[in-house]
Amino acid sequence: MGMIEVGRVVTVYGRSLIRFAAFEDKIHLLLKPGAYVKVECGGSWAYAMIVSFNLLDELYRRGRIVEELEGYAELRPARNELIAMLVGLEDGGTIRRGVPELPKPGQKVYAAETWDLAKVTAQGDLEVGRLSCDPSVHYTLSLNMLCSRHFAVLAMTGAGKSNAVAVILASILEKYPYSRVIVVDTHNEYVPLASRYPSVRVASPAGRTARLVEARYGVKPLPLEVPLWTLGLEEVAGLLRLDPSKATKQLMYLRNAMQEARRARYPLASADDPIYLEVGELRQLLERQAKTSRYTDRSLDDLLLKIDMLIDNADLRYVTRPVESKRIYEEVEGEEPRKSVEAYTRIYGRLLEPGLTVVALGGLPSDAQASTAATILKSVWRLITASVLAGNPLPTLVIVEEAHNYAPQGRWSPARDILERIAKEGRKFGIGLGVVSQRPRELSQTLLAQCGTLIALRTANPRDQEYILSSMEDVVGEMVEGLSGLATGEALISGSAALIPAVIRFYDFQSRYGVTLGGKDLDWSAEWSRPPKPIDLAPYLVGEEREEVEAGEEGEAGVEKSRLLEEFF
Ligand SMILES: Nc1ncnc2c1ncn2[C@@H]1O[C@H](COP(=O)(O)OP(=O)(O)O)[C@@H](O)[C@H]1O
Ligand SMILES: [Mg+2]
């Protein structure tokens, strides 16, 4: 097949951008999102992805003097300019980043062929979709690069982020039987994956939250316990809604109490070390501080009140009154600190067994979500780094949905430190991070700057676009401006895991894998077209411990309940 010449280079600028004038009769080949062209460059082909258009209309064109095109007779009638970003040099079927020298004005520009592209895009490990400009070409991502250099999935709500993540997860699960992935699932969207893949474990806070997950999805979650003693100072502060930058005094009281409670068991403990303590002890120690203080301190009283509310909060029993993990702690023999450390390892070690762990936090207040995620991620960090130092790597990918809640820009959250730490240092311990957010500009810039791969779906807000541009390497302004025009499920992929930067359409998870993700919007017109079904909400409204419903009793009723419980998630 002959190569199709589509235009001539007009300007080369900014190290990687070329502006070229396209022939009128070839323009239709180039107007698809993310279409590629190639130009000769030092004896090889340099590929460039079209990122911007400037198409002028006939009447306007006639009225202009096209002096700058003098010397290019064949271009005289056309004034269609396209901007393309050089993405790299063809090198035996792959694309090598960078070009040895820039193309020159006047050089011929050719359309890239399907065959060339297919060779390049098939070389990754995870097949996630197809090129938008040429749907016959499958697109793959490199697993190593995706996990070791971290990635961000950014877009406005409804653009297809969760679908994209689910497709990535499914392709990991189908290909790698011993993969190790932990998803912090803020809206319980990934729970249904468990119905298809046996290696998917759903862990949800023991008690009401877990019951709701089961009622809605018919998947029985592992009851998650995050005992208070495994929390550090910041996580406890998060549960109590103390912002360390403001509540400095309360934080000091809390710190003293936590440290003292831990030191009663292990004299060298800090306030943060996972050494056993009980919430009642914490309360007593705070009360004692109140008594020994010479004057009454309102902030201490306030702190005591907050502790009482924490103790009373039935949804947080999985933190304040865990049953299973208490048994584990009591069963471990030996002296402190070994006893605590051993119990800690047993409680959280389960997260690191091969498979996908969906930590379903939907239904919890966001402070509790953040503290829970922080504690879990810290434990993952501690266990993995220790294991690596002992010569046993446990490569683990951590994906965080609604990451702006956990690592916000310019605001404190208990999970921010550990997420930034994973982003900065995870690579050397084999901890990969994937952050998903619909509010890129509210997401920690530190975090975003560490993400080597950008998966950006439709993003209309110019401030979000600008923020993405300033936070990510390898991204040019013209690319992010194009993000507002993407269709649902379409994404611009750029960075380390991309064999070639591309605009692709992710597979539709539901039709490809036959599973419907959770957390979907209600179908209003359907709901309003039929009478509501009566259900007994009591077990879901009251947080008291209740025996699990007998397995046989649920049946139909369980399914019916689930429909009306959407609002809880
Ligand atoms: N690649 C795709 N192909 C077809 N439908 C998609 C695709 N991506 C998303 N959708 C649909 O669009 C809707 C929103 O997707 P979702 O992934 O929940 O968006 P987000 O997580 O960005 O809010 C869902 O109904 C989903 O099924
Ligand atoms: Mg989503």
What attributes characterize this protein structure?
single chain; 569 residues; alpha/beta; Pnp Oxidase, Chain A; Rossmann fold; six-stranded antiparallel barrel; disordered C terminus; binds magnesium ion
Helices and strands in order:
Layout: E1 5-13, E2 17-22, E3 36-41, E4 44-54, H1 58-62, E5 80-91, E6 94-96, E7 108-111, H2 114-121, E8 126-131, E9 138-141, H3 143-148, E10 151-154, H4 161-175, E11 180-185, E12 200-205, H5 208-217, E13 222-224, H6 233-239, H7 248-263, H8 279-292, H9 298-312, H10 317-320, H11 324-331, H12 338-349, E14 355-360, H13 366-389, E15 396-400, H14 403-406, H15 416-429, E16 431-437, H16 445-449, E17 453-456, H17 462-471, H18 477-481, E18 490-495, E19 502-506, H19 509-513, H20 524-527, H21 538-541, H22 551-564
Parallel strand pairs: 10-16, 10-17, 11-14, 11-15, 12-13, 12-14, 15-16
Antiparallel strand pairs: 1-2, 1-7, 2-5, 3-4, 3-7, 4-5, 5-6, 8-9, 8-19, 17-18, 18-19
Helix pairs in contact: 5-22, 6-13, 7-8, 7-9, 8-9, 12-13, 13-15
Describe the structure.
By secondary structure, this protein is of the alpha/beta class. It folds into three domains: 5-112, Pnp Oxidase, Chain A, CATH 2.30.110; 138-226 and 349-513, Rossmann fold; 233-315, no CATH class. The chain contains 22 helices and 19 strands. The strands form two sheets. The chain has a twelve-stranded mixed beta sheet, with helices on both faces. A hairpin with a 6-residue loop joins strand 18 and strand 19 (502-506). Helix 6 runs antiparallel to helix 13 (366-389), helix 12 (338-349) crosses helix 13 and helix 13 runs parallel beside helix 15. Bound molecules: adenosine-5'-diphosphate and magnesium ion. Magnesium ion (MG) binds next to helix 4.
